[in-house]
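*** Fold description ***
***
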Amino acid sequence: MKSNHIQHLLEINLAMLFIATSGALGRYVQLPVPVAIGARAVLAFIALFLYCKWKGFSLKIERKDTLVIFLSGVLMGVHWVAYFYALKLSNVAIGMLSIFTYPVITALLEPILLKTKFQLVHLLLAFLVLAGMYFLSPSLDFENSYTIAIGFGVFSALAYALRNILMKRKVSKYNGSMLMTYQTAIVGVLLFPFLFSVTSNTLLGQWEVLVALAVLTTAIGHTLFLMTFKHFNITTVSILSSVQPVYGILLGAIFLSEIPKGTTILGGILILSSVVIESVRSKKST
C-alpha cells in the first residue's frame, strides 16, 4: 500500500510537470488567446484520437453521460482561455499561482456537489492558499494588469474546479485518454471559427509551440492528470497538484528568464506548503 501511494504521488508529479509547460509555452506563443487555445485543442484532439484508435480504446459513451462530458469540455475551454489571458497580462509565476485558488474552490464545492464528507482541514488549507494569493498582489488596483491577470486566474480556477468535480465520477468508468479526446474536440469545435481570424501563414509560423502545447501539455499531461482521479478525492488531487507552479516557474526562469519577485516567492511558499501537508495527510489515510 505504501509503495502504491508513492507511485501515485510520482504519477501526479509527472502529470504536473507536463501541464506546467503551459506557462512558458503560453507566454511564448504569439497568437490571440482564442486562436492559440483553438489550435491547441484541434491538434490535441488529433493526437488523442489517433492514440485511442492505436490502443483500441472505445470512444462510445452512454447517453446519460453526454451532458456531463459536454459541460466538462466547455469548462475546460473556459479554464484554458482565462488562464492564457492571465499569462498574457502578467508572467508565468503570477499566471500559474493565481489559478491555484482552485483547491480553495474545490474544497468548498466538492462536499456540496459530490455529497462527500466535509473536512475542516481542507478549508484551513484553502485559507492558506488564499493567504499566499494576497502576497501575489497585495494592491487590489483594477487598473493594474497583474490584478486583472489574477482575476482571470481565479475565474479560470473556478472553471477548472467544476470540471474536475464533474469528471471525478467518470474516470472510473471511461479511459482518461478517451475523456480528453472528447474534451479537446468540444473546445476545438467551439473555438474553431477564431482560427479564421488569422492567416494560415501566421498559424504555421507558430506550429512548434502549438504542437508542444497540444501533445506535451494537453494530450500527455491532462490525460495523466485525469488518471490520478482514481486514487485520491478531488480536493486532495487539487491540493497535491499545487506543485505545478513550482515546475512552471522553474521552466519560465530557464526559458524566459522570468525571475519571480520576493513577494511572489512568499505567496508561492504559502500556497505550496499546502501540498506538503496534504501529501502527508493523504498518505496516512491510505
